[in-house]
TrEMBL record:
PANTHER family: UPF0699 TRANSMEMBRANE PROTEIN YDBS, UPF0699 TRANSMEMBRANE PROTEIN YDBT. Keywords: Membrane, Transmembrane, Transmembrane helix. Residues 555-572 have a biased composition (Pro residues). This is PH domain-containing protein. Residues 1-20, 180-224, 516-572 are annotated as: Disordered. It comes from Brachybacterium halotolerans.
């Protein structure tokens, strides 16, 4: 058997492959559990009230038969399901009677993630998800295969998406000018030990951990070093390649959850909901099965919300690789994603009120073909990061903003009062909150929107990504002489609302050349490179034209759109 066959399993004459033989057991069990959950939720009170030993035995026998049928059907589906990786993309074919095929074209592949749900992870299995442009449900799953095969297939698909084996145009460190300095090579994740997972927020990157006694650990027992390596392998699932960009210690993740006021309020509302539901059920039906049936979903919802938040940032680590930004996260179910810089359409930053002290920030991105389904998706580029981690992440995902000091501008956007940022924003008295919280800055390289009352929010849309503009004015807008401008990109949009019509028209004139002549999504390989990305020094196409009325003077920092004079009585 060849090396490829050993890695991916037996292949058919047409190059098709099947997933792991344990797949029917895992998929059949999920179908069986879903049916049982629906039946129990609808008939819990009746089942408890009419319980007898004879009925319990009959029910258990029926469940065994249902499980066998579910696994048998899953086995037939598994036998008729194959996948193929070719130079044109990834194709999966399935169907018992009617064969269907689903293809992720090579040029539309956006991200390849390796997911390890809790139960398959115990069996050493994983799922490869291929995200491609085309809609919120545009993905193709290869489930389930061994964890080692998943990494091999992930690399193979990424090579196909890149048009062949990926090469690095130049070696760059993880800290560049935007992060306040430069180095020849950033520390690798390979030097991180399990002890670092419990460490707090130490400045900079984690210290390197020697791998042997000769590397600086004389006298250390070999079993201790082996235990640390084993713990680290379990914690990171073998994600060790590339230069370290960000790593979230457990203590920081827990502190960030306790400091997120909005999330805590939602949690408190959930607890109150449980209490109110239990009281109503108790007053209506008494302390019986009705109380259990009414309170059980609410009781499960709160721990699920906490676990969901933990899964989104637990063990998070991001690395700079030849194929883009690679991220790993998850506690029980883990996920590894790849984000190519050319796939990112915008960057959204969020800093809650109590995160301002330690200067923590959450960063999310929009990628064509990847929906905002949950907090652990590939769109979460940094669940809670320090200033240095934010700047490194920004430098690997987006091109420069076009200012002399992008890092200082990001700091101002997240910390300064909105009215001190300049740019344009609402001025009418009707929008009394927007006058103090919303600002729009047009820079040489990006359109920046700042908003948020208690939580500071910043959206950065590279001008290269803009694909459309829409101007609207409703009844309130006609009454207040304001309008709404919607800026569309491939996977998101930026909405500028409540701004005077004259300012909106000026902004639209400045952005129209970007929408009309800017790079199209199919030309993303020619977009400007992020300053810290793997191909930062590769030649790129020139920037799109800038409207004459907003073009800065040569050798000077680009200025935002001019700030209009405040309206009478406006303290902004």
């Amino acid at each position: 058997m060849s090396t490829e066959d050993a890695a991916h399993g037996p292949a058919g004459q047409d190059g098709s492959r099947r997933t792991h033989p344990l797949t029917p057991l895992l998929t059949g069990w999920k179908i069986f559990a879903g049916v049982i959950a629906v039946i129990a939720a609808q008939n819990l009170a009746q089942l408890v009230g009419e319980f007898t030993v004879r009925r319990a035995l009959l029910g258990l026998g029926a469940l065994v038969i249902a499980l066998v049928i579910a696994v048998g059907v899953s086995a037939l589906i598994w036998w008729r399901t194959t996948y193929e990786i070719s130079s044109d993309g990834v194709t999966r074919r399935s169907g018992l009677l009617t064969r269907t095929g689903r293809t992720a074209p090579r040029e539309r592949i956006e991200s390849v993630s390796v997911e390890r749900p809790a139960v398959p992870r115990l069996l050493g299995l994983a799922k490869v998800r291929v995200e491609f442009a085309g809609g919120s449900e545009s993905h193709l799953d290869i489930a389930y295969i061994t964890a080692a095969d998943a990494e091999t297939i992930r690399t193979e698909i990424l090579d196909v998406a890149a048009g062949g084996p990926a090469g690095r145009a130049g070696t760059t460190g993880v800290v560049g000018a935007a992060a306040g300095g430069s180095v020849d090579g950033g520390p690798a994740v390979d030097g991180t030990t399990a002890d670092d997972l419990a460490a707090g927020d130490a400045p900079g990157t984690p210290a390197q951990a020697p791998k042997s006694a000769e590397d600086g650990m004389p006298g250390a027992p070999a079993r201790d070093r082996g235990l640390r390596e084993s713990l680290r392998e379990v914690a990171y699932d073998g994600v060790t390649d590339g230069d370290l960009i960000a790593q979230i210690p457990t203590t920081r993740l827990l502190h960030a959850m306790l400091r997120d006021v909005g999330w805590l309020i939602g949690l408190v509302v959930g607890v109150v909901w449980i209490i109110v539901t239990a009281i109503i059920a108790w007053r209506t039906d008494g302390a019986g099965t009705g109380l259990i049936a009414a309170a059980l979903p609410a009781i499960v919802a709160v721990p699920q919300a906490v676990l969901h938040r933990l899964e989104g940032g637990w063990g998070f680590v991001s690395c700079d690789t030849d194929r883009g930004l690679r991220m790993r996260r998850g506690l029980f179910s883990t996920r590894t994603d790849n984000l190519g810089a050319g796939r990112v359409q915008d960057l959204r930053l969020r800093r809650p009120l109590l995160w301002r002290g330690p200067a923590w920030t959450e960063a999310r991105v929009s990628v064509a073909g990847i929906g905002e389904d949950d907090s652990s998706a590939a769109t979460s580029a940094l669940p809670v990061g320090t200033r240095e981690e934010l700047l490194r992440t920004f430098g690997h995902l987006l091109p420069t903003l076009g200012t002399e000091d992008d890092a200082a501008l990001l700091d101002r956007l997240l910390t300064a009062r909105a009215r001190d940022l300049g740019g344009i924003g609402p001025r009418h008295r009707l929008f009394f909150i927007g006058r103090r919280t919303r600002r729009v800055l047009l820079l040489r390289g990006a359109l920046v929107l700042r908003s948020g009352v208690i939580t500071a929010k910043v959206q950065v849309v590279p001008r290269e990504r803009i694909q459309g503009l829409a101007l609207a004015q409703g009844p309130v807008g006609r009454m207040t002489s304001t309008a709404t401008l919607t800026v569309g990109v491939a996977a998101a949009r930026a909405e500028i609302a409540g701004v005077d019509i004259a300012d909106v028209l000026e902004l639209e004139d400045a952005l129209r050349p970007d929408a009309a002549q800017g790079r199209r999504y199919r030309d993303r390989d020619d977009w400007p490179r992020p300053p810290l990305g793997p191909h930062a020094h590769a030649p790129s196409a020139p920037a799109p034209p800038i409207a004459p009325d907003s073009a800065p003077a040569p050798d000077s920092a680009p200025a935002p759109v001019s700030t209009p004079a405040p309206a009478p009585g406006d303290d902004a």
